[in-house]
Amino acid sequence: MKLDDSSLQKFGFIKRETLGSINIDPLQTGGRLTEAAKQALVEWGDGYSVCDFCGGVLDQIKKPPIYDFVHKALPEFLDCDEARVTNGARESKFAVMHSIGKPGDWIVLDGLAHYSSYVAAERAGLNIKTVPHSGSPDYYLDPEGYATAIEEVTKESGKPPALALVTYPDGNYGNLPDARKIASVCHQYDVPLLLNGAYAVGRMPVSAKEIGADFIAGSGHKSMAASGPIGVLGVSEEYAPIVLRKSKHNKVKEVEFLGCTARGATVMTLIASFPDVVKRVRNWDQEVENARWFSARLEEMGFIQRGQKPHSHDLMFFEAPRFYEISEKVKKGRYFLYKDLKARNIHGIKSGLTKYFKLSTFGLGREKLEVVADSFEDILKKYEDI
Question: Which site among 29, 72, 161, 309 is 20 to 30 Å from 277 CA-CA?
């Protein structure tokens, strides 16, 4: 079909309306680019760009320093034996599941696992056993639930699961389960553990070895200030030969990553932001303090924070009974909150949500968080007669 000029008018440069807003979207707070990454995005944005310097293996490129990043800095940052960049945390998880498990094997997931963990397992042909959580209000995940799940799989299938996964923290409530205890439980049954740290790696200190995780997955665009999509994967020495195995047909290419993964602007923004990411992780205690202050402030207004208390992560889930009552009476209905926040230059709570919503306080600092909290209070006062 031939495209005429009129049909192309909707394309071209598209302005991002939310740019410059106070952003509380958990998907974006940890992925905001540093100034260095913004420069790298322009500098390395042409096609694959870094492939100009590739001799056949992406992570062996010495200049720009992809080799030093992947094989030296990243394993040290994750505290693991081997590391790779991938096209996202879900690709990291799939690479592990596909290489460690065989079609028909079982995998154990926590009850708050991200949908992509389920999809990755499904794509790898694996069956899923779920470790239940306690439900509202705290959604606690008992490490001993992994023992129960592993024993159930062993009884039903005749062998233990190929892999267990824990989400750290989960993407709904921001809960941080006792991953070290979960790893210990899994290893008692000789089951390796994959830590899904999409909202942890790049925000807070995480050590695969201290936890006892055999694999760790992270997200560059969610939590490491990269343009993405891009992820990172850490692997222990024991499982590296399996996950990082080479192709029989092209001996320099790693099978699970289809030969090459993130290249061009994605990996270069990840590298450009890395010094700032390392530094900001050291400030995690302040981030937790800010999150707890914000949660307490909202609860004073009648909001209810679900999940762990005291909270230990920037991602939080709130129930807002009063906002829901307002939404049932005002002309704008359930879209009133989004519009009122937008008028105050605040972005991140999805349009149409009033009764329940999640947000992130990461990287905003106390001054901007006060603006957000004051805005919630102002909106409540605006509709106090309704």
Answer: 309
CA–CA dist 128, 89 (Å, integer):
19
Overall domain count for the chain: 2
Q: Are residues 320 and 373 in the same domain?
A: yes
Q: Each residue of 285-310: b (16+ CB within 10 Å) or e?
A: eebbebbbebbebbeeeebebbbbee
Does a structural domain hold residue 148? yes
pLDDT tens for residues 86-141?
999 999 999 999 999 999 999 999 999 999 999 999 999 999 999 999 999 999 99
And the tokens for 99? 């290489």
With tokens 């779920």, the residue in question is 130
The CATH number linked to 276 is 3.40.640.10
Beta strand pairing status for 315-319 and 231-235?
A: unpaired
Binding residues for pyridoxal 5'-phosphate: 89-90, 196, 219-221
The verdict on whether omega for the bond into residue 229 sits within 30 degrees of 0, i.e. cis, is yes
Other CB atoms within 10 A of residue 314 CB: 26
Q: Report DSSP letters for 323-340, one per residue.
A: HHHHHTTSTTGGGHHHHH
In the three-class reduction of DSSP (H, G, I as helix; E, B as strand; rest coil), residue 217 is classed as strand
Domain boundary, last residue among 247, 280, 313: 280
Q: How far apart are CA 209 and CA 236, in angstroms?
A: 8
C-beta separation of 307 from 175 below 8 A:
yes
Of 215, 164, 207, nearest to 188 by C-alpha is: 164
12 with 89, same domain? no
- Angstrom distance (rounded) from CA 146 to CA 164: 8
pLDDT digits (tens, 9 = 90+) for 286-326: 999 999 999 999 999 999 999 999 999 999 999 999 999 99
Residue 2, in any domain of the structure: no
Q: What is the pairing mode between strands 82-86 and 106-110?
A: unpaired
Domain span at residue 313 reads 7-24+283-382
Q: Which of 280, 312, 334 marks a domain boundary?
A: 280
